[in-house]
Amino acid sequence: MSGIKEVIINKKTNINPIWIMRQAGRYLPEFREIRKKNTDFIKLCLNKDLSAEITLQPLKRFELDAAIIFSDILMVPYGLNQKVEFKKNFGPLLGNLNINELENLDEQSFTKKLNPIYQAIDLVKKDKLTDNKSTIGFVGAPWTLLVYMINKQSPKKKLIDNFYQDTFLIKKILSILEKYIKIHIKNQIDNGAEVIQIFDSWAGLLDAKNLPHFVYNPTIILVEYVKSLNVPVICFPRGIKDYKTYCEIIKPDAICIDYETNPVEIRKSIKLPVQGGMDPKTLLLEKDDLKKEIKKYLDIFKDHPYIFNLGHGVLPETDPNKMDYLVKLVKDY
Ligand code: CP3
Question: 276 alpha carbon to ligand 1 midpoint, in Å?
Fold first, then answer.
């Protein structure tokens, strides 16, 4: 069994498996090389051979315990026929939503459109580099996808003013997302994903009174669905203030924490296996300071089932040598 599953399923402590969010990405020169020749990000995600190759790039360099498939949470809105582009130095930009089109979706064409992602998972899973490792599939949580679908770009600190105005549209999108995120999860598992992570990157935008409707209720349905397929599920509700309540309500198999969350408090209040936490900016520090911070997380969670990861994606300006240093330190701890 992979280290990741030993921690999540068997609650093992002191083995410290490690993978890193955005481990396949812009900090790697070999990724940038491929990206330069493939200017359309969506097309790149839908190229099964390149997607598999990019997924495996970090595993060739570092002793990581998981492969996370090279794709994006916005492939679901794309599969739902909303236009999705990634503009240089801007980020994602989505097109207008057509409510009639949303009504006329069908399962087969969604799966067909996203099929290269599933083929890439199959290729990754069959590669020797992933022997004894976990292949991680992922989805965006309904709330975070709703944010992108209505806001049409990253909300950074703020949603558009009339975000909540069209309650009919919001209800419609949430029900469509529930159905299609499930299909996307099932397709990934059928093709070899052994763990699912649910990214709720914008959970922190909501105040406590809106969390039940937009985060808790839709996420519970997905978590129960993944569990019913006998696959472990990790939730990452980035930026929420109350991880304890989230865990008690959602009951994921493991919880991924962000870098603004106090790990000591988490260690005291949460019994579930924990993942992540360290600030991605730490990887920009000198090795001595980096080492202190890595040890801090490992010490705090030393008698707790813990998967090492960052508290958000690795930054593009990270030196791959620092990543190497990090992985070796965690392995030798
Ligand atoms: O973790 C991995 O290595 C797997 C691949 C992965 C990507 N995106 C590749 C990617 C994963 C798991 C994601 C998830 C994702 N995508 C999230 C949730 C996690 C988070 O960051 O909060 C979100 C919100 C997105 C949406 C998205 N995709 C944004 C906002 C951007 C642009 C800004 C950025 O952070 O890069 C992307 C583009 C994207 N997705 C890139 C990669 C490698 C960069 C593409 C490029 O310009 O080369």
Answer: 17
Q: How far is the CA of 154 from the centre of ligand 1 (A)?
A: 11
Instruction: Give the pLDDT score at 157.
Output: 64
The 10s digit of each residue's pLDDT in 62-99 is 999 999 999 999 999 999 999 999 998 889 999 998 88
Q: What is residue 84's three-state secondary structure? A: strand
pLDDT > 90 fraction of the chain, expressed in percent and rounded: 93
- Taking domain 3-332, whether its CATH number is 3.20.20.210 is answered by yes
User: What is the rounded average pLDDT of the residues 104-119?
Assistant: 95
Ligand 1 neighbourhood includes 22 CB (under 6 angstroms): yes
